[in-house]
Amino acid sequence: MATYLDFEKPIAELETRVAELRALTTDDESTAISDEISKLEGRATQLLAETYSGLNPWQKTTVARHPDRPHCLDYIEQLIESFTPLAGDRYFSEDAAIMGGIGKFRGRSVMVIGHEKGHDTETRIKHNFGMARPEGYRKAVRLMDMAERFALPVVSLVDTAGAYPGVGAEERGQAEAIARSTDRCLSLGVPMIAVVIGEGGSGGAIAIASANRILMLEHAVYTVASPEAAASILWRDSTRAVDAATSMKITAQDLYELKVIDEIVTEPVGGAHRDKEGAVRRAGDAIAKSLAAFDKMSPDELRKQRQDRFLNIGRSL
Questions:
Q1: Distance in angstroms (rounded) separating the CA atoms of residues 57 and 178
Q2: How many other C-beta atoms can be found within 10 angstroms of the C-beta atom of residue 285?
Q3: H or E element, residue 12
Q4: Which residue in 68, 71, 166, 212 is a FRET match for 120, CA 20 to 30 A apart?
Q5: Cβ-Cβ contacts under 8 Å for 118 (sequence gap 6 or more)
Q6: From CA 125, how far away is CA 120, in angstroms rounded?
Q7: How far apart are CA 160 and CA 127, in angstroms?
Q8: What is 61-311's CATH number?
Q9: Angle (CA) 82 87 88, round 5°
């Protein structure tokens, strides 16, 4: 059963009516019912396109958080052949919020690192809702070290509300782990492509997103803090999350204009959750194009391009 967001209620009503009419039809269905179904489907499709072409930042945030949206492991399953997961940080433990491993992407070996949120209660608990602890970021550093050792491009899939804020995580050096992971991204001598596939939340996101090129899905969001957290900080009122989302410039369109990201990956009409395979395929095409742009660059050139890219954010001539 489809999960509809609050602003999708008119669409839900039309699609529910179509489903009811289909349930009433038989093999010898009347022409009148068939015509009515076609009209309703056309109206639903048109309304869906119109709605998603004018989403505000808060609505995009809810789309980015949609439970049916494809997550890291969905991308790996469709895009990466012969994927071999690699676990553990070699210091403390394994953190399933960050998944990583080696595989083949369209004929070339790559290292993949990404946040995994999970799709149901069991997997969400297993992956801690995509919120990594320090050992997750230390694992990411270990995998980036391995990628550089074997000259493997790194592809990161960013989808987290933020790093896990628990007491244990802070005691084990959460801030230090995030800083070292960010630094390792910047110092890599191999190409790194980051894709914000859902939520890109705070340092938990940038720790694996400080790449040569940052791609962002059309309805994803990339934030310094979640809208709820920002509202609590600014106004001491988390219910003003809508105001915070609008003020912070968190959408792909805003961030492309500000040159924080490099490319917007168009989603299927109605969001990635309505056509997972189509959304993943489009992201794969964008990743392949981006990797090809860095094929002839030396390690030093890659480092310089990456560092210059971030140093130039916010600068004006």
A1: 27
A2: 12
A3: helix 9-24
A4: 166
A5: 71, 124, 125, 126, 127, 129, 130
A6: 9
A7: 11
A8: 3.90.226.10
A9: 165
Read off the tokens for 48.
């869906």
Residue with tokens 């914000």: 196
Structure tokens at 291: 């990797």
Cβ neighbors of 240 (< 8 A, separation 6 or more) are 231, 234
How far, in whole angstroms, is CA 239 from its chain's centroid? 24
Cβ atoms of residues 155 and 193 within 8 Å = yes
* 96 Cα distance to chain centroid: 17
Query: pLDDT tens digits for the chain (317 residues)?
Result: 578 888 888 888 888 888 877 777 665 556 667 777 778 888 888 888 999 999 999 999 999 999 999 999 999 999 999 999 999 999 999 999 999 999 999 999 999 999 999 999 999 999 999 999 999 999 999 999 999 999 999 999 999 998 999 999 999 999 999 999 999 999 999 999 999 999 998 889 999 999 999 999 999 999 998 898 889 998 998 889 999 998 999 999 999 999 999 999 999 999 999 999 999 999 999 999 999 999 999 999 999 999 999 998 877 54
Beta-sheet pairing, 98-105 with 108-115: antiparallel
Q: What is the DSSP string of 181-197?
A: HHHHHHH-SS-EEEEEE
Cβ neighbors of 134 (< 8 A, separation 6 or more) are 92, 169, 172, 173, 174, 176, 177
Whether 197 and 220 have beta carbons less than 8 Å apart is answered as: yes
Rounded alpha-carbon distances, angstroms, from residue 230 to 75, 199, 246: 30, 15, 11
- The residues, ordered by sequence, that sit 6+ positions from 88 with a Cβ below 8 Å of its Cβ are 94, 135, 139, 142
d(CA 232, CA 177): 26
Helix axis angle, 31-52 relative to 9-24, nearest 10°? 160
To which H or E segment does residue 154 belong?
Answer: strand 154-160
Burial status of residue 99 (CB atoms within 10 A of its CB: 0-12, 13-18, 19 or more): buried
The secondary element (H helix, E strand) that includes residue 217 is: strand 213-217
